[in-house]
Amino acid sequence: MCKLIRSLLMIFVFALVANAADYAPHDNDVFWVGGTGTWRTWTNWSDPAPGQWYIPGVVATNPYNDGSWAYNGNNGRAIIQSGTAQITSTSQPDGQVYMTCVGSISGANLDILSTSGELKLWNTYVGPNAGYSGTINQSGGTVKLRGTTRIGGDGNGAYNLSGGSLTVGEKDVTIGNVSGSTGQLTISGGTLLQTGSTFYLGYYGTGVINQTGGDVTFDLLRMGYRSTGDGGNVYSISGGTFQHNKYLGIYNDSTFKVVGSGAESIRIMQLNSSGEGAGSKLAVELDSIGSTLIEVYGDPDNGDPYIGGADLSYVTLFIDTLVDFDGVIGETYDILWSATTINTTGMSLVCLSDTMFSWDVVDYNGGELLQLTVIPEPATIILLSAGYLVLAVKRKK
């Protein structure tokens, strides 16, 4: 009985921790009050009292700095709950911002327009609490998110990267952290580099990444790692480049989606799925050319550490066609190539358009290639069969 009570208490405590809000009031909070304005305009922040932090992340010119502060000695927490705070090359922190929280019931924004050198943010929370929404827009500059990063912590968060460079991963990054939260990362330009720790797309919450451009490099992306399997965790790529240096995990009803042939390259060292009953999905939308080939390149001959190939066991392969698709019966389309093997145990195919396909795995370029072939739809097969039957009857006569 005691063991049961202890177990229940542990589950209860874990649930509280897992669903704890990212933002709670603190003595070091400095609130944005400037509507739309620049970071280093002191009147855009709540009035500093003696011993407080003036402007978060500002060290060298902070009037409370007695000369003993180190580069990250300013522990002020930037709380942006309204308006739009703007960071530019002439108005940015000269040290590291200890904590940045963006979001409220009515919404709030942080716009990173340009930087002078590297902008360093430690813990970063966008949409930190239930019912909150917040957005970071980066159109330029060099940004490094060094601490815990949650886009959609306990609420709704978005990060839009259209230019500049963004480096993350000294600590875990989560898009959609707790149950009920949603996070979205939109990449239309610039570069994203994730190194070191783990990037979770949908932890207990729902996460979406939509890449239409830019250059993206992951060390370790896990999709739907602890998700409840609602199918909302999606990585969609239609442009730019995608490079994954370890193994990409598609778990618990999550979807990796390739839209057309607009992406320059999609390279993954090893592709993992959850296996039977998990509902992992690979989705491909074909245009007039087909789709960008997914290259699973891990090869023992090259000394790569991850050489398990493409595990598509019990994955559902969804195939759709775009407006300009003009494939005819018998044409083939290359979907995925692996330097080693492709495991298709239990894999199923779902055709979402009127065009029907079959699939096959063939030997190609020292590895294996997953191909689609356009086949007649059932109605056409019936008509053809009827025609052959009529012809056979006529010949007998």
Structure in words:
By secondary structure, this protein is mainly beta. It has one domain (79-383). Helix content is 9%, strand content 41%. It has 2 helices and 32 strands. The strands form 3 sheets. The protein has a 12-stranded parallel beta sheet with strand order 2-4-6-8-11-14-17-20-22-24-27-30, with no helix packed on it. The radius of gyration is 26 Å and the shape is elongated. It starts with a helix and ends with a helix. 45% of the residues are buried. Residues 1-19 and 383-393 have low confidence and may be disordered.
How many structural domains does the protein architecture include?
1
Major sheet: 12 strands, parallel
Provide the low-confidence segments as ranges: 1-19, 383-393
Pairing-aware structural class of the strands and helices?
A: mainly beta
Proportion of residues in β-strands: 35-45%
Number of strands: 32
Individual helix count: 2
The main sheet orders its strands as: 2-4-6-8-11-14-17-20-22-24-27-30
Radius of gyration: 26 Å
The N- and C-terminal alpha carbons lie at a distance of 86 Å
Query: How does the overall form come out from the CA principal axes?
Result: elongated
Mean pLDDT: 88
Helix share, percent: under 10%
Descriptive key words:
397 residues; elongated; disordered N terminus; mainly beta; twelve-stranded parallel sheet; 41% strand; 32 strands; 2 helices; ten-stranded parallel beta barrel; single chain
